[in-house]
Specification:
The structure is a single chain. This protein is mainly alpha-helical. It has helices spanning about 15-35, 45-65, 70-95. Helices cover about 70% and strands about 0% of the residues. The N and C termini lie far apart (about 65 Å).
Length: about 100
């Protein structure tokens, strides 16, 4: 008898090699962020740092939190939470700016 209920989970296997590659990427991106702190890039330093932080967030979310393997609706809920957080940040900095 085959069951198709909410308790059915798909098994996914992430190899140690993939975890190691992602970990090395995260450490490398952190080193790049620290190195950028000593370089004068003007306004671009914040854009660059936030871009690197976004890449690191994607890697952690998709690989270590297994969002890559979750149902689409769960990923949408995480996206809504991130957008809500971004709105709060924008409103806070808008208030701070004026």
């Amino acid at each position: 008898m085959e069951s198709h209920g909410p308790s059915e989970h798909k098994n996914h296997i992430v190899s140690y090699g993939q975890f190691t590659i992602v970990w090395i990427a995260l450490v490398s991106l952190t080193a790049i962020t620290v190195a950028l702190a000593g370089i004068e890039l003007g306004r671009w330093v914040i854009v660059t740092a936030l871009t690197i932080a976004s890449i690191k967030t994607y890697l952690v979310g998709s690989i270590f939190m297994h969002l890559k393997f979750e149902d689409r609706i769960f990923t949408v809920f995480v996206g809504v939470a991130v957008v809500t957080l971004a709105v709060f940040f924008v409103l806070t900095f808008f208030d701070y700016g004026f």
